[in-house]
Amino acid sequence: MLKVTCAIIENNGKVLCTQRSSKMDLPNKWEFPGGKMKDETAEECLKREIKEELGVEVKILEQLPSNEHSYSNSKKIKLIPFRCILKTFEITLLEHAQAIWLPLEKIECLDWAKADIPIVKHYIENYK
Ligand SMILES: Nc1nc2c([nH]c(=O)n2[C@H]2C[C@H](O)[C@@H](COP(=O)(O)OP(=O)(O)OP(=O)(O)O)O2)c(=O)[nH]1
User: Fold this and answer.
1) Which reaction is recorded as catalysed by this protein (predicted)?
2) Is any ligand 1 atom within 6 A of the Cβ of residue 113?
3) What is the pTM of this model?
């Protein structure tokens, strides 16, 4: 199973939501920024991916419950979310189609990647 970390980045009561580009797999789906774990800890992976994708540094607040999802027999992922805040603030979109800051009550309206849906629900229920 592929381990994938992702960042729920909070700022002023809003959360950063990013849309995958039409050229990535799961094209145009919304996700939390992050990516596949290499030979590193989940925390190292998250910080590396956020720097690569958004050009910013994050501080991790806490790890939230992971979600396992099978997109197909050959593609199973374990998505590991972390609540974060920004340490540097100038976001540059290096891979995503777009990024938006949304208040909690609006994030459920987006067309999320399937693996994210239980994570979004858990987050809304516990942090509203
Ligand atoms: N980053 C991220 N990936 C997610 C989320 N939800 C979800 O199903 N995925 C899937 C999409 C991809 O199949 C996989 C992560 O791949 P990725 O393309 O973001 O990872 P990466 O940056 O390491 O990719 P690569 O281009 O180096 O292969 O997990 C999410 O919230 N964030």
Assistant:
1) 8-oxo-dGTP + H2O = 8-oxo-dGMP + diphosphate + H(+); 8-oxo-GTP + H2O = 8-oxo-GMP + diphosphate + H(+)
2) yes
3) 0.96
Residue-wise pLDDT tens digits, 44-78: 999 999 999 999 999 999 999 999 999 998 999 99
Q: Domain limits at 74?
A: 2-127
Span 81-127, pLDDT tens digits: 999 999 999 999 999 999 999 999 999 999 999 999 999 999 999 99
What ligand 1 atom has the least distance to the C-alpha of 25?
13
Cα 4 to ligand 1 centroid, rounded to whole Å: 6
77 lines ligand 1 (CB under 6 A): yes
Residue type, 69: H
d(CA 86, CA 119): 20
Tell whether ligand 1 has an atom less than 6 A from the beta carbon of residue 119: no
Q: What's 56's domain CATH number?
A: 3.90.79.10
Is the CB of residue 16 below 6 angstroms from any atom belonging to ligand 1?
no
Half-sphere exposure of 51 (CA within 13 A, CB side): 9
Counting from 1 in the atom list of ligand 1, the atom nearest the Cα of 115 is 8
Q: Residue 25 gets which letter from DSSP?
A: S
> What is the tally of structural domains in the chain?
1
Complex confidence, ipTM: 0.94
